Amino acid sequence: MSAICHWRARALPAAAAARVVRAVAAHAAGAPASSELLVKREAVVGGEVAVLTMDRPKAKNAIGRQLLESLRSELLAVAAAPVAKRPRAVVLRSAVAGTFCAGADLRERRTMTPDEARKFVDTLRDTFTLLAGLPVPTVATVDGYALGGGFEMALACDAVVAGSGAVFGLPETGLGIIPGAGGTQRLARRVGVMRAKEMVLTGRRFGAQEALDAGVATEAAIGGAGSECADAAAMALAERIARHSAPLAAAAAKRAIDGGAELEISEGFELERECYETLLGTEDRLEALAAFAEKRRPEFQGKW
Fold first, then answer.
1. Choosing from 152, 210, 219, 272, which is the catalytic residue?
2. Phi-psi group of 82: left, alpha or beta (phi > 0 → left; psi -120 to 50 → alpha; rest → beta)
3. What is the pLDDT of residues 210-245, one digit of tens each?
4. Is 149 a catalytic residue?
């Protein structure tokens, strides 16, 4: 396994890490295409941005088995690819007007036995853990409803651009359950324990400005032409990341920040040192030094 994959696996709980590593290894056999998740690569300065577009209009992008498998498959493809062939950033968006993702497909859920429902939620949680630990920066474009699992999906991304129509909420306690795909944990780490409890226990919905103020969103794109404004802002952010960050450095920075947030600061410094030292001998670092001396933009190849 490459060092970057090793870093990602170490950041996960042991059981989830084992499942992700097995899934990445198995992904070499390929995965079926899906009309519910559209995938394309956009060329930008510095490399490519992968755009994953959910397109399940009749169900408002509710997460059923097919959409979940398609998303998981694409994330595994990114994680399994050689560093030089990975996109420099991933944008997760919706093709359905007024909706990012309405959460779990409750119609499908009603047909599941308790054991099937448990396995589905385990897979959903592991998929969002894979999304959070992806060795590529991720940006969610939310300009519509992001409820339940849809909100949890956005929380698993490195950045969230909220459009003027964005509506966030976790309604699960009103359905006799709790957010089960990482929502209770990631939300509390974003907004604080007390505020997370209020949001979860009331199921209250809130928009882009509050999302920005609370730390749920990185940016509020609330001007211009609705979702087009949010999409443009998300792509602009992804392009800035692709243009600026060497791919190995981006993965190391993610590991240092995400892993360090769970540690005492002295342990966080040690993790930072480990991540820094791993990059000292890379070709990307040498290319950056040469480009600085020659007064040109570095051309990073993601090479150790």
1. 152
2. beta
3. 999 999 999 999 876 556 899 999 999 999 999 999
4. yes
